[in-house]
Write a structure and sequence with these properties.
It is built from 7 helices and no strands. By secondary structure, it is an all-alpha fold. The chain folds into 2 domains: 85 residues; 55 residues, no CATH class. The longest helix has 20 residues. The protein is globular and about 50 Å long.
Length: 141
């Protein structure tokens, strides 16, 4: 799990903070663009870096928030490739389940959300994920 160091690491942290501010203001398109630019700046082997998962996470979060299905679908597969040494606690499946749910792919959403629930023993379902957990419970968990 290499982490960006030096100037590039500092630039990434500034970008991450700026993306959070855009998210809070509701300017999801600006956040997505900023994060997409950050993705392009990752060095060769970009999927190996810790930051790759963070970028994909933030892009998906913004895309879901503004219902940008094209961006969701473009980035969701990357969540399974980013930061491969990261622990497997159901987060990846949770993101894929969210995207499938928001895209109207209910069967696919159920598959992913069930795996996420099983791997995490329900821990990946936070306060902001109540609708996904309710959907899962309504469909037999």
């Amino acid at each position: 799990m290499p982490k960006l160091q030096g100037e590039l690491g500092e630039e990434f942290e500034n970008t991450r903070q700026a993306a959070v501010q855009y998210f809070r203001k509701g300017d999801h398109s600006a956040a997505i663009q900023l994060l997409t630019d950050a993705w392009e700046k990752l060095p060769e082997g970009k999927y190996e870096y810790d930051e790759s998962f963070i970028i994909v996470w933030y892009i998906l979060d913004n895309a879901i928030e503004c219902r940008d299905i094209d961006t969701m679908k473009k980035w969701v597969d990357k969540v399974f490739l980013a930061d491969p040494k990261r622990g497997d606690y159901g987060e990846r499946e949770m993101w894929a389940g969210r995207v499938a749910y928001e895209s109207g792919e209910t069967e696919k959403a159920l598959e992913y959300l069930r795996v996420a629930y099983k791997k995490s023993k329900g821990r990946v379902f936070g306060d902001t994920d109540k609708k996904y957990k309710a959907f899962l419970i309504d469909n037999g968990l």
